[in-house]
Amino acid sequence: MPYHEFECSKCIPERKMHAVIKGPGEDLTSALPLGYLNTIPGSISERGCAYCGAKHVIGTPMKDVIHISHGPVGCTYDTWQTKRYISDNDNFQLKYTYATDVKEKHIVFGAEKLLKQNIIEAFRAFPDIKRMTIYQTCATALIGDDIDAIAQEVMEEMPDVDIFVCNSPGFAGPSQSGGHHKINIAWVNRKVGTVEPEITSDYVINYVGEYNIQGDQEVMLDYFNRMGIQVLSTFTGNGTYDGLRSMHKAHLNVLECARSAEYICNELRVRYGIPRLDIDGFGFEPLSASLLKVGRFFGIEDRAQAIIDEETARWKPELDWYKERLNGKKVCLWPGGSKLWHWAHVIHDEMGVDVVSVYTKFGHQGDMEKGIARCEVGTLAIDDPNELEGLEAMEKLKPDIIFTGKRPGEVAKKVRVPYLNAHAYHNGPWKGFEGWVRFARDIYNAIYSPIHQLSGLDISKDEIPTEHGFVTQRMISDATLSHEVRTSAMVREYTGKYDPIADLRKKTYPDLKK
């Protein structure tokens, strides 16, 4: 068997079944670690809970909604502003978080009265917002508060508001993926089909499993708009509450993140006959194939090809410049969910980096199957790792960089391994042709950062070479591309009112001209 046993986890022998090394000639039946199981007691998982998966991943990107957690304040604080789900209504959902702040006395005597009071207060504090989602937590689920009854009571008293209740306490599944399922099914059961939209195109889609991390969605919407496609709703990035109630009128569900949102696509197919088409917005080849698939579905493949030709000609030289300098660098791909398989092969093929390890905190067996199948022989695959296992893996594999979340990323920095935030990005968006170049630039900047290069030196005994911090400068000066081409990814002007990276660009590159 290809199982890998961590030295730090020998006291928990069950953990051996959760890590494998892909060997030569092995198929997936012998190279898959166990996954999507309850965390083994004592292993100190870094997973999120089902409540986190419902509120933090799926619910919060809806922009015109008061997102209120019925439970202790710590639950809502932990799921507030930890991803860059930007929106074009001045980021209302990121600026404010709401909780009923349940205390010990409410656990003893009940918290329904407190919930109703908080709902009314929230609507009065923001009179322009008429929509709300209430998320149940472990504490209020255990005491049996009837959130649905309270929500219905408020809607009868305030007819102009609408409330969605998501019953997804933390213990509702082995990981945050259980929360994804809960809110997907609840939304299609309770809200889809309750609003009739205006159809303005012969080609109408729902863009599903897209959360507008640092403007990812805006990049993809630009491509769809150029193809003449109407995006009826986005589940749920920068999406409106009422827009998402009209998902039943789309001609096609275009699915990006299958791990978080395939459930609602499958239900919409069963109930309304809407077909599902999986796409990939990361990487030149996968994105090109995805746009062609969508175009082929509607018979407008030529429009997709025109976009591909234009964007590839514009951005491929820049990507090649970075690939030449990243070739052979080792990366631990530890993103958590579907990016495991969205990125595994394409960062190797298009950026030249070697994936030496993959892991998932909440992915299912299907995620591992696709991820491992796209990795090279010798890759270490881990399910639900903890901090000590991550440190041991970095010591063994000696990666040049890791792509992961903020918590394990900060641990990596302590052992002088640079990281990129795979969940919320460093300088996104990373989708689209330009975004993929931006991702390569972030990898390049992290690996060749003079700070990281100098951090391994001990100033009390090591000689500090004066040229140590100028590796990047020499590489850039040797480039054959012009200054205008090298900086084009940073200064491209978006059309339209909503420019998600304009402020970031101005702050970071104040001296660059158009």
UniProtKB/TrEMBL annotation:
Signal peptide: none annotated. Gene3D superfamilies: Nitrogenase molybdenum iron protein domain. Its EC number is 1.18.6.1. It is an enzyme of class 1 (oxidoreductase). Its cofactor is [8Fe-7S] cluster. Residues 49-447 form the Nitrogenase/oxidoreductase component domain. It holds the Pfam family Oxidored_nitro. It catalyses: N2 + 8 reduced [2Fe-2S]-[ferredoxin] + 16 ATP + 16 H2O = H2 + 8 oxidized [2Fe-2S]-[ferredoxin] + 2 NH4(+) + 16 ADP + 16 phosphate + 6 H(+). Keywords: ATP-binding, Iron, Iron-sulfur, Metal-binding, Nitrogen fixation, Nucleotide-binding, Oxidoreductase. GO terms for molecular function: ATP binding; iron-sulfur cluster binding; metal ion binding; nitrogenase activity. Belongs to the NifD/NifK/NifE/NifN family. Hexamer of two alpha, two beta, and two delta chains. This is Nitrogenase protein alpha chain.
